[in-house]
Structure formats: structure tokens, C-alpha cells
Amino acid sequence: MGVIFAKLWSLFGSQEHKVIIVGLDNAGKTTILYQFLMNEVVHTSPTIGSNVEEIVVKNTHFLMWDIGGQESLRSSWNTYYSNTEFIILVVDSIDRERLSITKEELYRMLAHEDLRKAAVLIFANKQDMKGCMTAAEISTYLTLSSIKDHPWHIQSCCALTGEGLCQGLEWMTSRIGVR
Ligand SMILES: Nc1nc2c(ncn2[C@@H]2O[C@H](COP(=O)(O)OP(=O)(O)OP(=O)(O)O)[C@@H](O)[C@H]2O)c(=O)[nH]1
Ligand SMILES: [Mg+2]
């Protein structure tokens, strides 16, 4: 009985799932992390290095690393990759000009050995902005349907109101146990 309990506990209870939150500077990564943690909008400044927080969703523990997205910091994203189970890629849906850079970064990550088992959640953030791209437009531009070797999901959201964030987390929890 004790052994069975211990096994179940290790499967569903205490195990921590590593998540990296990436995306270009100003996409809203830090805002999303603290919405997850506190259900409120915090005042942010550009992240130099990273923030890390434990987020618990229905008894599932995620260790979330929010990594600075400025150009000079992107080359060190790979130092966070080992043992990552989920990549949360945050896109600023109003930033049409830089979506091509996000695309390059996405495919660079997917090709990285340390991320070969990672599932990808794409947040199409800032949906409150007038004239923003829809999740469908972003999906088409990023050619997400061509990704066959990683589970992926795109979710539109607004980090300021929190809209869409829970649905993203629900997709992540639904993936646990699948693999
Ligand atoms: N309108 C709007 N603004 C948002 C939203 N999410 C974040 N922001 C704002 O966008 C700005 C940048 O947000 P951050 O969370 O600091 O961005 P970041 O991705 O962590 O940026 P770096 O740390 O530089 O990589 C802040 O002024 C946020 O308030 C959103 O959904 N809508
Ligand atoms: Mg930040």
C-alpha cells in the first residue's frame, strides 16, 4: 500500500515540471508569469536574466522560468533548456514587424537537442490591442501545422486581464501523463 501511494505521489503529487517562458522583449512574459502567480498585473521592467516561480495548478507543480527576451540575451536562452517539459512562447500580437524574428527563434529552439521532448504553448498575447493579429494569423505565419515532432497549442490571451491564460495552463496540465 505504502509503495503504491509513494508511486502515485511521485507521478501526480510532488513532481515538478520545468517550463521556460520565452519570446521577444516586450511580449508580456513577466506580466504573464505574475498573473499566474498572483492574479494581478505587476509593474514590470525589461528582464535581465530571469525570474523563476513555482505555479501550482490542480496539484500539478510547474517551475516556470521567465527569461529576458532582449536581443543580447537570446543567445543565452539555451542555458535554460535542459529538462524543459514545456516551452511557453509569448508573442506580442501587435508586433507584426518582428514576427519573423519570433519564427526564427521558435524553429531554432525546436531543433535544439535539449528541447526535443518539450511541448510548446504559444500565447498570442495583447489581444486587447486594436488591429492586433489573431491567433489564426499568427499560427499561419509561424507555420505551426508543419510542426510534427513537438506537441503544440496556440492560445490567444490578454495578460492585463488574464483572459486566455487559464486555458493555456489547462492545455499544459492535459499534456502531463500523455507522454
Ligand atoms: N496592452 C497590453 N499590454 C500588455 C499585455 N501584456 C503585457 N503588456 C505590457 O507590455 C509591456 C512589456 O511586458 P513585460 O511582461 O515586461 O514583457 P517581457 O516579455 O517580460 O519583456 P522582457 O523582460 O524585456 O523580455 C508592459 O508594459 C506590460 O504591461 C497585454 O496583454 N496587453
Ligand atoms: Mg520580462
Kindly describe this structure.
This protein is of the alpha/beta class and 179 residues long. The chain has helices at residues 2-13, 29-38, 71-74, 99-110, 135-141, 165-175; strands at residues 16-22, 50-57, 60-67, 86-92, 119-125, 152-156. The chain has one domain (15-175): 3-Layer(aba) Sandwich (Rossmann fold), CATH 3.40.50.300. The protein is built from 6 helices and 6 strands, in the order αβαββαβαβαβα. The protein has a 6-stranded mixed sheet with strand order 2-3-1-4-5-6, sandwiched between helices. The model has no long low-confidence stretch (mean pLDDT 94). Bound molecules: guanosine-5'-triphosphate and magnesium ion (MG). One of its GO terms (molecular function) is GTPase activity. Pfam families: Arf. GTP binds at residues 23-30, 69, 125-128. This is ADP-ribosylation factor-like protein 5B.
Q: What integer is the average pLDDT?
A: 94
**Broad CATH class:** Alpha Beta
Provide the structure class: alpha/beta
Task: Name the helicity range.
Answer: 25-40%
Assigned CATH architecture = 3-Layer(aba) Sandwich
The small-molecule ligands in this entry are: guanosine-5'-triphosphate, magnesium ion
How do the strands line up in the largest sheet? 2-3-1-4-5-6
The number of domains is 1
CATH topology heading = Rossmann fold
Which word captures the global form?
globular
Number of H/I helices? 6
Distance between the termini: 26 Å
Radius of gyration based on Cα positions: 16 Å
Q: Superfamily at the CATH H level?
A: P-loop containing nucleotide triphosphate hydrolases
Question: How many β-strand stretches?
Answer: 6
Q: H/E series, N to C?
A: HEHEEHEHEHEH
Q: Uncertain runs with pLDDT below 50, 5 residues or more?
A: none
Strand content: 15-25%
